[in-house]
Structure formats: C-alpha cells, structure tokens
Hints:
By secondary structure, the protein is α+β, with helices and mostly antiparallel strands. 19% of the residues lie in helices and 34% in strands. The mean pLDDT is 94.
Amino acid sequence: MIGRLNHVAIAVPDLAAATAKYRDLLGARVTAPQPLPEHGVTVVFVELENSKLELMTPLGENSPIAGFLEKNPNGGVHHLCFEVNDLLSAAETLTAAGARVLGDGRPRIGAHGRPVLFLHPKDFDGTLIELEEVKPELLSA
C-alpha cells in the first residue's frame, strides 16, 4: 500500500534558525518558507537526494503543533509521510482494519499540493503517520 518515504517532519520552535542549520552548517538545499494556514503551520523543505525533511513551526493561535512544542520545547520528530497511489482506498483499507484517520476523515491539500490524511499515532506504535497521494507513475517501490 505505501510507497516511498516522502518526508520526515520535524517541529521546530524557530524556523529561521533551523533553516540556517540545515542550509549553512549541513550545506543542504532548503526551500522558502511556505505558510499553510489550513494546517496551522509554516514549513520549509530540506531537499535530500532520496527524500525530504519538513521543518515546521506553528502558524496561528490554534496550531496543532503548539502542544507538541510545549512538551518538546527544543523541537523534535513530529511525523513520517509515506506516499500512496490512492488515498481514499488506503484510508478505507486502514479504517476497516481498525486504524483511525484524524480529523473529519476527509483529505486536505498538503504542502505539495496533493491530498493528505493523518493516521492516529496510537495505531502506529506512537508515530503520527501522514499519507500523501501521488500519481502511480511517481511512486517508487
């Protein structure tokens, strides 16, 4: 069902400082900040040869990652994102097996302009999972 690892998301308290570390200290290519009001975060992507890191910081008072940063003031790994070729089918299969989709269960458009869903971390060994729909020809096994 899942394809490649699309990205690992890291919640950070200071997006500019985190961006500088990856760009200046590690020499990585980093995208410009992208506000995602629907998701309550501002993100940048650290572009790697085989995947990406998503650095994200709260946007707005009701940001879903504000609580995460309260518990982890220095930041930390927030979620893993896997690619799937049919998001609705994947969600149906997972919920039939007892996994919980967060929110209202309907896909939202993510940072890459593609539909995404999040799966409850209690159903995946304490790890928040994001599924992102990618056209089948873009999936790599």
